[in-house]
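Team,

Forwarding the record for the chain on the shared tracking sheet. I've put the sequence and predicted structure together so nobody has to dig through attachments.
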Amino acid sequence: MENSACLLRGVMVLLDLAVTRCGRVMMAPTRRSLHIALVEAPIKEPRRPSLALGYLAAILRGEGHSVAIHDINARLYHAGPGETRDLWEHFSHWVMERPENTAAFMRDNRSVIDPLLAAIAQDDPDIIGLSVLLTQRPLSIAVANALRAIAPRAVIVFGGPECFPMFNPAGFAESGGPGYAVIGEGEETIREFARRLAAGDDPLCPGVMRIAGGTAISGGPRAMIRSLDEIPFPDWEGFPLDLYREPGRFSIMMTRGCVNRCVFCMEPEMWSRFRIRSPGHVAAEIAHLAARHGTTSVEFNDSVINGSPQHLVDLCNLLVTRGPKVSWGAQAVVARTLDDRLCARLKAAGCGCLSFGVESGSDAVLALMGKRFTVTEASAALRACAGAGIATSVNIMCGFPGEMEDDFALTLSFLERNRAAITWVNPADAFTGIVPGTRLHREHERFGVRFVGSLTFWETVDGTNTFLVRMERFERLLRHLRALGLDALYPGLEYQNRAAWIDAFYRNREAAAR
């Protein structure tokens, strides 16, 4: 009771300070105010405004700088030719990996893109910042190139997941001009970067890489933010909130990192430790969103919402007792603590859906993946959610190294046994992607993997697991889901652009053999 009372007092204080914490004052003034353009480049599903840019806007406005938001991605999605709309679906993101497709996209959409770029340049920005996901990398570089030509005074800064060390941030030198990359966590780095630039000093600081003349110079590493409560609430002013697929819904962050260490996942490499915001701080942000934007729904942008069960319970208690009544969804890990009692509390606090990275119905494959749960425990967690009225989404991977035909059959059986407790299934359309920097990539030989000219077309040394084998299992999974009446978060019953992928497989194989 004493702990609950303290939490309630804490959230009341935070609620009173919400406007201040979301970002305007409290920062020492810089020597001069900068004009900064934050840009969301294509292609990324325009579900909700970018959480990364919302945080950067709050930091920079708190420093006294002028910040303009330019969501080229969302505006082009709505204003571009209708036949290009499919490019924003997750099954088409690979198209921009080919340089000729990126060039054609920029050329074919000039009538829409050019005015959007001109609007950025007309304000003569001091800094142009782009937060980059994998699917945005080719067009972020193309957009940066175009902006250099019409806004030559601006300092170009790349950031986001693609600028974490394992993703080769120096590769942004391919963009053909000088610029900077923020390496890793960006909030404190961009604050210092802007302060230095505003004072007329060299902005190369810890956490920054300068890219010029095809070479990269590092400012050294920056320690991770000690307390996530130090980060101000995202500032959503200037975002085209009416253009997103989920209008009125916002992303929110409670944690960074993951308590698990799956061998195929980048999360342990990106964040060396698991960090979590205080429940009162999270509740205060939800209250701020409801009061400021009238939101009734949020999505936690975390890899794991239940990494600290007690923090999650405390948050639920605050939402139940103080409100506001906001529904929410999140990703969770299978754990014994996710039982009937906790699920009932989650539901009472507004939880509408939890997504689980189950990945396989074979205990042997789960062990190879580094999962810390069993198939039986996964079934129990799904049924506890269903019993409480919480929708569930289950991620499934096909063809993990070591997965045999019998293991895949166990996955199909798992889905059949638990279909009443599963709302959606999300089949990984990379089948089993091997990402640089992961343990699976570093130790690929131990997993019996060899790369055949491309990470996409890896195969096992015994030849039993190839891209075509994984594709065939993926399509069998889609047909099985259709037969079970389960909704698959993937269109159709065969792999999209199937013929092109098969052709690429054989061409890649021939090239590797030469």
